[in-house]
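In response to a reviewer's request, we include the raw inputs and outputs for one of the modeled complexes. The two entities were modeled together in a single run.
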Amino acid sequence: MSEKKIVEERSLILNRRSFLGKTAMGVGGIGLASLLGTNLFSKGENGLYTADSGPAGVKGVLDSLHHPSKIKRVIYLFQSGGPSQLELFDYKPLLNQRRGEDLPESIRNGQRLTGMTSGQDNFPLVGSNFGFQRYGQNGTFISDLLPYTAKMVDDICIVKSMYTEAINHDPAVTFFQTGSQQPGRPSIGSWLSYGLGSENENLPAFTVLLSRGSGRPNGQPLYTRLWGNGFLHSLHQGVQFRAAKDPVLYLNDPKGTTADVKRSMLDKLAELNDQHYQESNDPEIQSRIAQYEMAYRMQTSVPDVMNTDGEPDYIYKMYGSDAKIPGTFAANCLLARRLAEKDVRFIQLYHMGWDQHDNLPGAIQKQAKDVDQASAALIADLKQRGMLEDTLVVWGGEFGRTNYSQGLLTDTTYGRDHHPRCFTMWMAGGGIKPGIVYGETDEFGYNIVKNPVHVHDFQATMLHQLGIDHEKFTYKYQGRRFRLTDVEGKVIKDILT
Amino acid sequence: MIQLGIQIGHLHPLFVHLPIGIIMLAFILEVYGRIRAKESFSEVVEFTLLIAGITALLSLGTGWLLGEESGYDEDSLFLHRWMAVAFTTTTVLLYLVKRSKASWVSKTYIPMFLIVLALISLTGHFGGNMTHGEDYLFIKEQQEVVITNIEEAQVYAQVIQPILDDKCVSCHNANKAKGGLLMNNSNEITKGGDSGNLFDTISGEEQSLFLARVHLPLENEDHMPPKGKVQLTDNEKALLEWWIENKNCFECQVNELPREEKMIAILTSLEKDTSAIAVLAKEAQEVPKEWIQGVRNAGISIQTLSGKNHLLAVSMASMDAITANKLELLEEYAPNIIEMDFGFSNFNDELMSGLSPFKNLLKLKLQHTKVTDAITKELKNFELLESLNLYGTAVTDKLILKLKDNKKLQNIYLWKTDVSTDGLAQLQEDIPGITIQQIGADVFEATVLDPPTIISEASFFTDSLKISMESLFDGTEVYYTLDGTVPTESSLKYESDIVLTTTANVKAIAVKKEWEPSFVTERTFIKNNIAYAKVNLLSIPNEKYKGQKGKTLMDQKRGSINFVDGNWLGFEGKHLDAIVELKEQNSISKVSIGALSAPASWIFYPTSFVVSVSNDGKSFKEIGRKNMGEEVPNAEVKLTFFDLDFTPTKAKYVKVSIKSPLKNPKWHTDPGGKSWIFIDEVVLN
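The model returned the following structure tokens for the whole complex.
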């Protein structure tokens, strides 16, 4: 979309806004809208950021929740690359028995394949090289690769019947994060920042932490647009906290700047910006003013959160000694808990490196080791602090992996291609039934046979737990009301307490 | 004839309301006319009474005919009918009295008017009872069926009968048994009505009479409930079907009958939320926005649960200036407040007494505050309390053992308190439904330390090299070896920098109390003191992987497993030949080449390499050859050095010929395809 178009779009919003604010007909319109039971015109339909929401961070556009929420925040441990459900959660002994046999067409059923395996002459089935044992009160099967997750199995809800429409990484991750395979829509965290605002005036409502996996250290990169604000105001974009001297780039003052100088500079700047705003009515100017202020406050709040020196030894024993190394998944899990304690609403972690097309057994061992202990520790830590009851923790990737081998199949090695038809995720925390397994795949681990859960269903459920009706939470743009779940999605009531 | 009569009788509802309204109007006009002393009103009243009489007659006539229709309770019908006759007669009489000029007659006018009013009221009432049911006017305190656990609910009594009560019984009751059918209890339902037994399958149809009537099109006369009455919802229909399919069991529990997924969903929707939060929400009054804003202005975080739910959650977490005044601020809407979070704040025993008005608290968070066992007394106030967070406080068994009265407690957080395991066991016994949210001490017991990091400026050196080691945690001890053996706690202990003077394979482990010792980490440092003048590449590397050409091979920089990092030279389907020209003649006894293998990227180790030397750069003499052979099937990304030792030989020029497999091996996914070799380093010694 061209820049010109965007400007036109904004001016339309503003026209209506001033129209409503300044004419009696506007008032009539509001009256009519309320009579019709819609919320069309209240507060500016698209919830423009206004100066009167004061210094308390960003105020959400929703006046009140649609229903009481079960949770206050979400920690999303995104496993980027597509973790193999067959090695981790979805135990399929049949694949071991029939190792090397061709995948029956009756199972594949014409499913589209990626270009990476569509040229293969045959699709030899391959089971996990790693054992599964039963754990927890319900005797849930968990792979030997996840010894710590196994110990926490009574606290998590494993969904084995996730499915998606995308078959390649970027569209699939984008789909999970924004509800659309095409780029351009806001990420979940941005939606929440927009709808619910920030609880902590000193930190953004949506933070992002990245880590590289040792399973495939040079796997696909991620793009910042995955935590972008799309058509929402840029105030709502995810703020990436880096594992470096400056966790947030460009936050520090130049040498020689004192707090006073900085403050008076910001005040003057705000005056000038405000003048410009009065002339142009471009709401992005107000976003800009707010961002300057937020950055000013983050100068002290960010170092405070990122400095983990005070964490005692037993905490590192929980998360694993990796947690001491900045930029690892374990360190990010520990930071996630610290951010959660500061009431950051949406904490998004990405752990890359699950895209194991070849040499999967070698790679997934390292990859699982990266995440297993820290993920389990995060749940345990939240639980002991009494935070798990109002936090939703999600663990999962953008799709699953095939039940047949991509490339070389030997006793010790094989690979797996992308598989969107079924994969496993787990959730834990507020309002999610703990210790259950939901959904089922066939004995080939290829198709779902019970309780399928679509990406939009997952998103609808997440919003539901936050007290938001995914069908009512919209933003009007280019003449259409957009939702995170587009036009689909249903709340998975069965997994809720 | 009777049929026609009943048809006309159906007009009864049309006329029946007219005399009622008109009589009332006449009475009002009469009273008003007398108060205002308006003579002219008299005539109007007279005329109105005439109309009232005529409409009363019409109503009576049509009503009489309608009464011939079967299905009405005889007693009610009798009363209604004869009351109506009395009313009609007196109304006509009243009209005549009004017209009469005789004074004794006029004296009876007002008493008679009152009688008429009484009669119309009674007649109307009995009529209403017949059409709407006796319960209609004075709703009996209905015993609402509340299902909290649908699994154990009675199918007929708790699920089916309430539907019938709601939608069927108003016409099929003892007063008005339409079609001779009563549906107010199981006995009557089993008996059936004029059309037969409800549960018998009717001929020509697959379903019972009951469902057949329900499923007829709305327009059909026999459709039930009749058009115009409140219809059954889809869920109700589904429930009825399910019940009848399962032999209309009158005594079954829900979980005794088979249920499909859809049915489960419908049944679950019948469950009533009797949770404390739902009950409190019903009673809660709305909280004005201004009040909330006022609280927020005082720096307190407060939220209503939702747009429709007026309960409140309050947080003063991390505040360091909570005072009794701040708590008082909240008292006005104390019954609305169900959650309070004081975590990590200055909250203490003294402030606890300020919480006594908040009797409806379901969740109280006091983690990391200064509260002690002294709050025991106040905790008793919170009879509804479901969740109590005391993590990181100084509470002890004393408090825990007094929690018995908080019977509703579901979750308690006691991590990092002085509560003993015995105390926890006792608490579990006192309140069986409670979950003590703690992680077993064994879960994270066997945590493995990360190995130490071996730090040095380079991997190659000419004279000596200083290396140091770092570990992540204070109190970690590092042990190492330099000869390639596996280090243990009896190996050399790292105290300060190590200085290497020869090529060494350094291995190290980290050890710390209460942790599992780390895995072994290792690094090889290569001494290489032969200076070179230049490298002449005889084979041209691929354009994409050409690094700094020949220089890359001697730059003493290792490549990583990422083959695009610029430290690798890549050759597709060809061998690599290179001549290294030394600065001066040197004695050489060893050549090592660094290579990469990544079969999935079509990169393989070389199969062999040959070293030849020369002093003039023209005639080379082979002095050694190393055969590595073809790789076994694998898919790992890895890198290594291949070494070739030979008797020391003096040389000015050294030529290495590295042989590529040229083609992918048979076991590869693309057998016979052009394969690659990647070389990063040639080391002379």
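As requested, we also summarize the result in words. The longest strand of chain A covers residues 156-163. The two ends of chain A are 43 Å apart (CA to CA).
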